[in-house]
Design a protein that fits this description.
It is a single chain. By secondary structure, the chain is of the alpha/beta class. It has twelve helices and ten strands. The strands form two sheets. The protein has a six-stranded mixed sheet with strand order 1-2-3-5-7-10, with helices on both faces. The chain has a four-stranded mixed sheet with strand order 4-6-8-9. Strand 2, helix 1 and strand 3 form a beta-alpha-beta unit. The model has no long low-confidence stretch (mean pLDDT about 95).
Length: about 260
């Protein structure tokens, strides 16, 4: 994989799929400021590349990311955390990406690692994956969406359980709860994630972005307003060439050729 301008991540382009690998194996991919900065740069590059239709974010077999870097935050004062906007600046970049993002999770996805996984759109995990928000064990609490995204995904009861006890949830429980999209064998993880991303990338990019935006809207508004938002986006697809091509191809019983316009 290419990593010329990065020290904490690896980045590769494979066809229409961008692959970003968290690469601090000596620290179980703990998320420090340098890594978050590089992650933001990589996502800026991939999102801005018209040839890229979807992004895969992964770690290694031991850890997707074991959390934020404790050594980096242990001595911070309140005023430092507040004035520096700690865990805000740069941390939401994955969630703000307009292109679909597939997380491929093996090993630990804890604290900030779980929170970053939740910022992705599809989470594919191996049987070895472990999710959790163990911040309470450190005398603190989640700060990158753990108390907000988690209950939206898995419900209040399980979110309270994880955040208040600090326990880890295995992949099977995470899939049952709705946090994980699908579980695959460890040796198939990256291949499956890339295959999913390739399938998404083969669709019309603007339509895929609309779908992502619309699903995310469901968590931000009422049902009535969400349906109205969805319908207006649906109507807008009829102004695209890709809608005309997709429906013409269906009628002609051939594969569509989308041109992202």
């Amino acid at each position: 994989m290419k990593s010329a301008k990065y020290e904490n991540i690896l980045v590769e382009r494979r066809g229409a799929v961008g692959i970003v690998v968290l690469n601090r194996p000596q620290a179980l991919n703990a998320l420090n400021a340098a890594l978050i900065g590089e992650l933001g740069t990589a996502f800026d590059d991939l999102e801005g590349d018209p040839a890229i239709g979807a992004i895969v974010l992964t770690g290694n077999q031991k850890a997707f990311a074991a959390g934020a870097d404790i050594k980096e935050m242990a001595e911070k004062t309140y005023i430092e955390a507040y004035t520096q906007d700690f865990i805000t600046r740069g941390w939401e970049r994955v969630g703000q990406c307009r292109k679909p993002v597939v997380a491929a999770v093996a090993g630990f996805a804890l604290g900030g690692g779980c929170e970053v996984a939740m910022m992705c759109d599809i989470v594919i995990a191996t049987e070895t994956a472990r999710f959790g928000q163990p911040e309470i064990n450190l005398g603190t609490m989640p700060g990158a969406g753990g108390t907000q995204r988690l209950p939206r995904f898995i419900g209040k009861a399980k979110a309270m359980d994880l955040c208040l006890t600090g326990r880890m949830m295995d992949a099977a429980e995470a899939e049952r709860a709705g946090l994980v999209s699908r579980i695959v064998a460890p040796d198939k993880l990256l291949d499956e994630a890339i295959a999913v991303a390739e399938r998404v990338a083969a669709m019309s990019q603007p339509i895929a972005m609309m779908v992502k935006e619309s699903v995310n809207r469901a968590f931000e508004t009422t049902l009535a307003e969400g349906v109205r938002f969805e319908r207006r986006l649906f109507h807008s697809t009829f102004a695209t060439e890709d809608q005309k091509e997709g429906m013409a191809a269906f009628i002609a019983k051939r594969e569509p050729t989308f041109r992202n316009r």
